[in-house]
Write a structure and sequence with these properties.
By secondary structure, this protein is of the alpha+beta class. Helix content is 39%, strand content 22%. The protein has 3 helices and 4 strands. The relative contact order is 0.23.
Length: 95
């Protein structure tokens, strides 16, 4: 279910003209699943299947560090994806 949502988010961001990179957790653990670059917004997205899906030990710490740097970093799951999709639709101009 998480992979399906991740694929949907990637396709959405790419449709808006964003360059999207999927993290390889075997290379660097704790890094959010997706990094994206768009002329209007750059950031990271951690994808979870559900709101109560567990985090890996380094994930929360890494998310907090990224947010503390002022970089867009959000956890998106099936329950909040419609809300975030609507926000991103408003924020990201098609390129």
């Amino acid at each position: 279910m998480e992979k399906k949502l991740q694929s949907e988010i990637i396709k959405f961001l790419q449709s808006k003209g964003a360059y999207v990179l999927k993290n390889d957790a075997t290379y660097r653990q704790g890094v959010p699943d997706l990094a994206f670059w768009h002329p209007d917004l750059n950031g990271f997205i951690e994808v979870k299947a559900h709101e109560n899906s567990p985090f890996q030990p380094l994930q929360k710490k890494t998310l907090e560090k990224i947010e503390a740097m002022g970089i867009f970093c959000r956890v998106i799951h099936n329950e909040n994806w419609p809300e975030w999709q609507a926000k991103l639709e408003q924020w990201l101009e098609d390129y």
